[in-house]
Amino acid sequence: MSADAVIVGAGFAGLYALYKLRGLGLETVAIERGEGVGGTWYWNRYPGARCDIESAYYSYSFSDELQDEWDWTEKYATQPEILAYLQHVADRFDLVRDIRFAEEVLSAEYDEASARWRVTTTKARIDCRFVVFATGCLSVPKSPEIPGLADFAGDLLRTHEWPTHVPDLAGRRVGLIGTGSSGIQVAPLLAEQAGHLTVFQRTANFSVPAHNAPLDPVEWARTKGNYRALRERSRWSASGSVPLDIEPVPALSVSEQERTSRYEERWRIGGMKFLQVFGDIYTDRAANDTAADFVRAKIADIVEDPRVARMLMPTDHPIGTKRICTDTDYYRMFNRPDVALVDVRDDPIVRIDVNGVVTDSGPHPLDVLVLATGFDAMTGALLKIDIRGRDGTRLRDHWSEGPVSYLGIAISGFPNLFMITGPGSPSVISNMVTSIEQHVDWIAEHIRFLDTHAVAASEALPDAELEWVAHVRDQAEATLYGEAASWYVGANVPGKPRVFMPYVGGVGTYRARCDEIAAEGYRGFALRSSADVSP
Ligand code: NA7
Questions:
Q1: Topology of domain 2-141+376-532, per CATH?
Q2: Which UniProt keywords apply (predicted)?
Q3: pLDDT tens-digit profile of 258-302?
């Protein structure tokens, strides 16, 4: 079959891309591995799964009608509510008819002569002009690399593909490996249901209380009344959400008392904006230490057993350089008599066997084992597909030393291929929905430009790509991000090249840069005329 454009994925990015490309009059088809829309929010159905960005902003802004008609119920929406929202969007804009579900893209190969892509899926071959990867940044799970996993005789559950029928946990011994956002969200709910919970922690993470609550109707009405202006502020902000209404002065420019009182105030409000309270948390280690010390002191206050509290205090990375978690009663959970913490740096996991997890100190018998061990972030989903560009160049080879791209959108040697929130763009450092809309809008405008200028193929120039990669690296090097062995640098996947992947210069700055490049007739792109292409 043939189409003008193939979109890979039907999560937030794929759905909007489908809406937008269809709006350009392109015959567009989306391929989705799941049996329904939703992407991340389709797969990650574990108890406690929620977004850590406020619902009011973790949602589309492209349609005033959609925005006006939808009401969120909580400050931070749960996975079922976000999934219901995406299903509503898919229905409302009649997107489903162009989505092929339960189908996976295996390869995409570019033909230079015709300037077209051949996309091979598990069910079909599609010949198309444009291919848009909306594959998500955290969609390919990472194996925990622990020997014996397959031997475990109990129930093995994974947060990223939580089953619809969950075994009853009442009275059972549950183990949890992984204390990133997923582990920290699921743990308190496992503790409530299980007979006993053992948390196996490798790296202690900083977590701030979410203080989730039902949305106050008066406040929600006020947000909706001012929605367009708030969205516009988000688009030009650093993070992609409405920033705090305070001057972000350096942390050490105020007295200790003032600093503590500002942290206290943010802790009471909760959420990821905790770190926005001062302007230099991400760039100055001494400033960062003040925030880290504050959170460590909170852990000491909340957790009754000083030994457990110490184990929970992160010491190996500056706060925020691994994605900060938001939680509901995570630290308090460790005061329960039926919850234990094992620090696997001190007491390493040796193997998993039929009965449970075996650490250096001995066996931990379990009935249920939950894995929340993370993802092959940002590049995993793209490199899983055999993508071959001009002259048969494989993306895997082009990226053998880490991902390189122009704007995180286009790749040299891969004409008419676009990534949504690819490595080199703000993506995971931002409110993803804001970034997704910006990328999709930019790509759609680019395609419109190609059509109105009789351009058959657009390709990032190698120099523009190198320059962009250097710029992304320079931005990161001006921050403390490099001090953490995080998934932002691929450190969680053995053998993955260590390259800092997201663009940390801010969503607004990035948007301005993209707009500037478009205004200059797509500087940095080679545009091949339709006249040069064999019909
Ligand atoms: P993360 O943040 O990558 O967390 C994965 C966790 O699993 C992390 O604590 C890891 O420790 C731990 N892990 C991974 N492998 C092992 C092994 N072998 N043994 C022990 N512990 C292990 O993934 P999440 O799903 O929680 O969150 C991903 C993003 O989704 C999040 O940032 C939000 O944006 C939403 P490590 O830190 O590597 O030592």
A1: FAD/NAD(P)-binding domain (3.50.50)
A2: FAD, Flavoprotein, Monooxygenase, NADP, Oxidoreductase
A3: 999 999 999 999 999 899 999 999 999 999 999 999 999 999 999
Ramachandran angles phi, psi of 416, nearest 5°: 55, 25
Please give the CATH number for the structural domain made up of 143-202+333-374: 3.50.50.60
C-alpha 33 – ligand 1 centre gap (Å):
23
ipTM at complex level: 0.99
Q: How many CB atoms lie within 10 A of CB 525?
A: 24
Of 202, 323, 349, the residue with max ligand 1 atoms within 8 A of its CB, to mutate for a pocket test, comes to 202
Give the separation between CA 304 and CA 330, rounded to whole angstroms. Answer: 13
Q: How many CB atoms lie within 10 A of CB 124?
A: 12
Lining ligand 1 with CB less than 6 A are 138, 144-146, 177-183, 200, 202-203, 323, 344, 349, 372-375, 487, 492
> In the prediction, which pLDDT does 214 show?
96
Structure-derived torsion over alpha carbons of residues 209, 214, 216, 220, reported in degrees to the nearest 10: 90
Measure 373 CA to ligand 1 centroid, in angstroms: 4
* Statement: the pTM of the whole predicted model exceeds 0.90: yes
Q: Ligand 1 pocket test: which of 45, 51, 181 has the largest number of ligand atoms within 8 Å of its C-beta?
A: 181
Report which protein residue has its CA nearest ligand 1's atom 20.
202
